[in-house]
Amino acid sequence: MRRTFLGMPATAPRGVGHLRGDESFPAAARKALGDAQLRRNLRHATTTIRAKSGAVIGEVPDWQELRAAGRAIKSDTMARLPELLEQLEAAVTGAGGTVHWATDAVQANRIVTDLVRAAGADRVMKVKSMATQEIGLNEALEAAGIEPVETDLAELIVQLGRDKPSHILVPAIHRNRAEIREIFLREMPDVDAALTDEPAALAAAARRHLRRTFLSTKVAVSGANFAVAETGALAVVESEGNGRMCLTLPETLITVMGVEKVIPTWDDLGVFLQLLPRASTGERMNPYTSMWTGVTPGDGPQQVHLVLLDNGRSAVLADAVGRQALHCIRCSACLNVCPVYERTGGHAYGSVYPGPIGAVLSPQLTGVADNASLPYASSLCGACYDACPVMINIPELLVHLRSQAPHPRSEAIAMAAAAYTMDHPRLYAVAQRAAGLGRVAGPALPPPLNGWTASRDLPAAPPQTFRQWWSENRSES
Amino acid sequence: MNARDTVLARLRAALAGAPPTVPVPPGEHRRQGDLPPGHPELVDLLEHRLTDYRAEVHRVAEAAVADTIAGILTAAGAAAVVVPPGLPTEWRPGPVEVVVDDDLPADRLAGLDGVVTAAAVAVAETGTIVLDAAADQGRRVISLLPDLHVCVVRPDQVVATVPEAVARLTPGRPLTWISGPSATSDIELNRVEGVHGPRRLHVVLTDG
Amino acid sequence: MRIALFVTCLADTLFPEAAKATVRLLERLGHQVVFPEDQTCCGQMHVNTGYPDEALRLVRRHARVFAPYDVVVAPSGSCVGSVRHQHAMVARRAGDERLASRAEEVAGRTYELSELLVDVLGVTDVGAYYPHRVTYHPTCHSLRMIRVGDKPLRLLREVRGLDLVELPQAEQCCGFGGTFAVKNADTSTAMLADKMRNVLATRADVCTAGDASCLMHIGGGLSRLRAGVRTVHLAEILAATENTETAGERDRLGVRP
């Protein structure tokens, strides 16, 4: 349902941003599954990260207690979200920052574009941020004649390759080193033609390529991993140092943050800074975490802006079961353990949020009808729930959203008929025997059930059902 | 309604009918490690963790800090380094040119070979040093642009866990948590050291 | 002990041997098995496909049919998982708090077969004999929804003649997922291919599991490959003895002629 009443929870608008795919998950997955190189890249990367993450999580004696604490803090945050945002706003403003509010992607893009223009800049450098990808900020900036430069290595690979991100943490996970080398040779001016595909050499090429940009760009745009309501501190967790460059070198810093990223207290950072790196990159701690509170005179940007973004989050919050999707800290552990993601990659999900969390978050942000195939893009194996550092019950959410999805008419009729039959044991017994007889036709099924028999045989029908056997062999009557 | 009022009204409407909030129970996770700050085993653990992520660690007596720093810089071929204004003068390395940061422009900093700072706190379990922009650590940018960072840590600054570090830090200060040299996992999810931040990190752990 | 069999619709209709084996095994261990004949289906397919409203009548039926029994057993981790984690939710969603608490009571007395044997009856050596090379696939709902842990393996290790071989990447989903196998057939098939590769790498004669549904999926793939590996439900292995190893039984339980 799309509601547009002012002040009522609303889904993210169509026609802007990247929350909706062009085709259904099964159709997009089919293409990805045919790409053998992609599947090798994904398998290698997800296997690597699972082993690393498992090892460093094993070092933490209180991992389960930390997960429970993470969940409790996030539940409390959602229950008090309006008050915490007001508290955050006051703290940031008090520290010399400026807070903006955006109901949706269109407003957020306009706010950022206007701020960049006001700073007199025609280029911005960007720290990797899911929120700005979600709202399509780069396209909006380009339309306004402003050049966005992605500085995260993987985002740079994606941008130079005119590609789409396919993973929350490692947007170029679908590319291997040889493909990355080819992109750099093709797209980086002045790149050394002798560039090898050694990861260290590729990283060094990116360092040379971006250094001048870092030193000469006056405006940066970032996201935020956490925002502390109590103190106004914002935190960005990163690895390469591109984040530090963007957060300290420019004159103007604009941070775009989904409203759910706020956490109540400073001490809460002690929980999340343990959970996030071990669950995401499989490190005890990521190389760099930056925290800033408004403006620090003489140190870093002197114009500091924070854009608080709704864009469908209020609609997610309105669903008492669904709101736990807002607890997500974007670690991507659920992607790395998901057997579906491992085989299809991120593009099949259509949205910037792929994998299990994307399958529950995207449909809620857009309204389930606009992403109706995503809640079904899971075998409900539960690996994501076990891996989630804030214990989001993704399988429960998937099933919950399936009940909201529009159902094919024929399926709905069949399901209702099946439920009726199964509620009448005599009818049920007749149907069971008919099912056995029907199989005499052969080991294949007609559409749409031929998806099964395309690659699997049906079991041979047994000579009698269990209840027939029971009545002949055990029944007291 | 302006955007602020609209967003807040939407969120309040979304929560309408939700049960009243209850205070979060404190939780059973560790607030501190088994060993007190500065315990020799913690310093050993910090060294191990730092080394594991390719930082180079030097354990020296307090009196030998300056010589150690000088040795690191000389060995690295560093000719000129920046230091924050509050760095203890006795730590300033003799044999190389020392530039005291005085709001130096970024281009100038990028042209220097290294930086020497103190730290605010270090986390043993994660191999992390935290800078809080105090006078002996300086502006965030000085430890970012030069390619070599030498950081001096005293034992009483070494805590076991992340929550202990968070508790020690002052909210409101600009903070930089550093765990090893600049790195990326963006190519096939393997960690590779050396992207935009300093590619070499030396940590000097003093005995007092 | 008097134990009510929750047969599950799949075992009742397509895999009666697994259900019959459950009966024979428990009777051999000295227990009385009863089969409440008004049971049909737990409604998991409806819930997982997005039809909780239609599932409500099945939840109500299940709770009513099994309410009189102190102990209920099912040869399926998945259906037990549905009873434990979905029935009360379906009832609450419909605003029926009374049904929700009844469903929770029944769920508290409902066990998957390996749970019943190890936790309730306190037995790991069930006196079985099964002279085959066997690998065990921990189904997702056994493993992560109801957390049977290593109970099936502890039972299998005590089976005489059985050569238990570890399945590589055992904890990866086989790709069944109920209607997932139909709605996302291509992805499901890709997952199945990897599961089959791992099963074949064990050089086992038999792949076993605690869920007929996943075995139907894996077995259907292996059959299409003519791989020579059969799928056999855990209950059938635990029910097998020297006496059941007749020619007919070997044909049904075993692998190659």
Automatic annotation (TrEMBL), chain B:
Question: May I ask which residue range the UniProt record assigns to the signal sequence?
Answer: none
User: Annotated region Disordered: where?
Assistant: 18-39
- The residue stretches assigned to a coiled coil in this entry are none
Every copy of the LUD domain together lies at: 110-205
Q: Which Pfam families match?
A: LUD_dom
InterPro entries recorded = FTHF_cligase-like_sf, LUD_dom, NagB/RpiA_transferase-like
Record's Gene3D superfamilies? NagB/RpiA/CoA transferase-like
Do you know which SUPFAM superfamilies this protein is assigned to? NagB/RpiA/CoA transferase-like (SSF100950)
Q: Which PANTHER family match?
A: LACTATE UTILIZATION PROTEIN C (PTHR43682)
Name of the protein this chain belongs to? Lactate utilization protein C
Q: Which organism is it from?
A: Micromonospora globispora
TrEMBL record, chain C:
Q: Which GO terms describe its molecular function?
A: oxidoreductase activity
- Sequence ranges assigned to domain Cysteine-rich in this UniProt record: 3-82, 134-218
**Matching Pfam families:** CCG
Recorded hits in InterPro entries, A to Z, give: Cys_rich_dom (IPR004017)
Gene Ontology cellular-component terms listed: cytosol
Q: What is this protein called?
A: Fe-S oxidoreductase
Native organism is: Micromonospora globispora
